[in-house]
Amino acid sequence: MSPAGSALVGLLVAVGAVVVLPLGLRLLGARVVPAPRSAAWPLAGACAVVSLLLPRGALAAALAVPFALASAVLLAAGVRLAARALGGHRGGASPAGPPSTAATVTALVLPAVGASALVAERAGWGLLGFSGTYLALTVPHMLYAGFGAALVAGAVARLAAADRLAVAGAWGVPAGTALVLLGYFVGDAAELVGAVVLTLALWATAAAVVRSAARPGGHPAAARALLVTSAVVVSLAMVLALWWAAGEALGFAHPGLDLMAATHGVANALGFVLCALLGLRLLARDRAAHGGAAPTDHDRTSPRAGARRRPA
After folding, report:
1. What is the C-alpha separation between 124 and 15, in angstroms, rounded?
2. Residue 118 to residues 48, 59, 203: CA-CA distances in angstroms?
3. This protein's superkingdom (predicted)?
4. Mean pLDDT, range 227-237, rounded to an integer
């Protein structure tokens, strides 16, 4: 990857760590994440950004540690949510459906993978047989595909629990992301399978959003515009992901890493994840203002018990 490409990846990491991650945690609420509105989350992200500006070495690695610790807190929150959901199923009650819970747990767990890669890359170490560019690219992938996409898919599945496409997306995003990670160790063919599953899952989530937005009334215009924009962007951006993964696995021409960062990376980070989270935030505020939602065991976007559920 060229210096310009590396700089762009660093910029995407900065937006993800300082803006996207804290915004997503606010959507989840205090029953899922400790102190989701605390300034500690963006501050930990800012430390990671500063570490990227320094030469590799002990100081750069040390500055990445606060972000790793914050990710460890999220990992623990994900484990707690999964345990609570399993306990609820055994007891016959579940405040949120299994697909939504699976996606949310994925969103909470995977930033720790990216943070571990960041510490290792900044220190100049290898990690599980990977180093350099592989580790550097793992960080934004875990912030946007691991955290952002899974969080969005889970939120859409909660808000449109009767929509089979939304449910399929919430199951598929964790599965696709796990397969892509497995492909790092197994080979390009497995990574291609993961890319296909992840793409189909995100297309399903996007279709559920567009189908809901086409229904008259129900949501603020700004929220609808942001969510539809995110759906259109991810539908196009994932074509590039398929092209790249298929080219790597099957040996035909495909975009290089610099072009993928400038197109697929920017589109997914800003056009999909950021727009979707902002749209969901506006929906949450609208529901709170009209008494249509209250915080639950899962997040602030879930409908209040007994209230009529609107599709996403």
Report:
1. 23
2. 8, 13, 29
3. Bacteria
4. 93
Collapse the DSSP code of 296 into the 3-class scheme (helix H, G, I; strand E, B; otherwise coil) and give the result. coil
What are the helix (H) ranges across the chain? 3-15, 21-28, 40-53, 58-90, 98-109, 111-123, 133-141, 150-159, 164-186, 188-213, 221-250, 257-260, 266, 275-289
Residue ranges per structural domain of the chain? 3-289
8-state DSSP, 127: B
* pTM: predicted TM-score of the whole model, two decimal places: 0.86
* Structure letter (DSSP) for residue 223: H
Q: Report the SS3 class of residue 293.
A: strand
Write out the two tokens for 257. 């890493």
Q: If you search the block for the tokens 């990992």, which residue do you land on?
A: 75
Question: Measured between alpha carbons, how far is 233 from 227 in angstroms, rounded to an integer?
Answer: 10
Which class for 310: exposed (0-12), middle (13-18), buried (19 or more C-beta within 10 A)? middle
The 10 Å Cβ neighbour count of residue 249 is 18
Contacts of 57 (CB under 8 A, 6+ apart): 122, 123, 124
- Most confident segment among 109-123, 129-143, 158-172: 109-123
* Radius of gyration, CA atoms only, the chain: 19
Burial 95-121 (b: 16+ CB within 10 A, else e): bbbbbbbbbbbbbbbbbbbbbbbbbbb
Look at residue 113 and give its three-state secondary structure. Answer: helix
**Residues forming a β-bridge with 293:** 303
Measured between alpha carbons, how far apart are the two ends of the chain, in Å?
38
Task: For residue 25, give the amino acid letter.
Answer: L
Which residue from 73, 72, 103 is spatially nearest to 85, judged by alpha carbons? 103
pLDDT number for residue 303: 36
Q: What is the DSSP string of 254-273?
A: ---HHHHIIIIIHIIIIIII
Q: 64: helix, coil or strand?
A: helix
* Residue at 143: amino acid letter: L
pLDDT at res. 120: 93
**Tokens at 180, concatenated:** 């892509």
